[in-house]
Target: 6-phosphogluconolactonase
Amino acid sequence: MKQTSLIAAALTLGLGINAHAATFAYISSPGDGLISQYRLDQNNGALDLVEQYNAGDQVNPMAITPDGKVLFAALRVKPFQVQGFSIDPKSGHLTPLSKAPLAESMAYLSTDREGRYLLGASYGADTLSVQAIDSAHQPSSEILTYKTGLHAHSVRTDPSNRFVYAGNLGTDKVLQYRLDHKTGALTPIGSGFVKVTENTGPRHLAFSPDGKYLYVVGEMSGTVTAFSINDSTGALTEIGVANGIPERLKLAHGEVRDARNNDLKDDPTPRIWAADLRISPNGKLLLMSERTSSSVSAFAVDLSTGELKFLDNYPVQEQQPRNIAFSPDGQWLLVTGEKSDKVGTYAVSDDGALKRVGEAASGKGALWIEVLQTSAN
Model:
């Protein structure tokens, strides 16, 4: 009887925790320097704007620490720096916590899986950076930097936290490193990279939940390249490429873009301009955003082989969608549009089909999305 009572109590406690869980989204908008906090209703996908914080001019990439306690946000104007905000565990409210220099203007920000290091990728300076994060969540002013080929666009550690990978858009390479847990130093694995098809433009990364596979979106090709990860060495081996751009979109191959021609104003040709890549929590679905057509493409993931199968492409209302993000249960997808004044919520079906169910006002030029599930009153 006593054991039964304990089990019942545990179940009740578990249900209580779930019942009071809250899902928050934080979205940066460099056009007005804001970080907007939203609350996502996990029951129906409704999205409510809670609060907006003046983070600083050109606030862009962000990262939440693995413990969910701190949000880091990079400012892309001189002096380049990262702002740290503590996250209230109940309300999700942000409070300024720390500041630290960054090596360059960062297009991508992440932490390692233990929250001990802050990693950055600089598109304009062709650089990766690593800096330690202390126990008070203060990033170090001492920064390790690594020169890459043209246009580093992302950097992330794998689920085992032993390896680091980076998308190097301008060289059609995916960089591969081993992470030194004591110093944060990156050591090249083998030659330090794997090549992809010319004019692919490796951009953002996604890992399978079991850490066996890495997926890389091609900004210029609209394809996703799948790699297996050697469990011992971290070396990547290409296992397949899936095209996410159906012919009906009538998009020409993309081109490398930078500060000189970011909008290709002198080129009227509609071109592929893929952006973000996200994998569902159960690992069965991969979604890719495409800016020119304002759409999201869905791929099925074979859990046993890591191979991809294109499912379909779905239009979204957010114009020029940049980042997308799954809710923690994979039921909803958040979409920002650089040229939209709304953030949208979409119900995600098992086959990747999207149905818009909610929206909220966004900041100007909304880009980066970080989602956090926490406790609430």
Observations:
- Helices lie at 2-19.
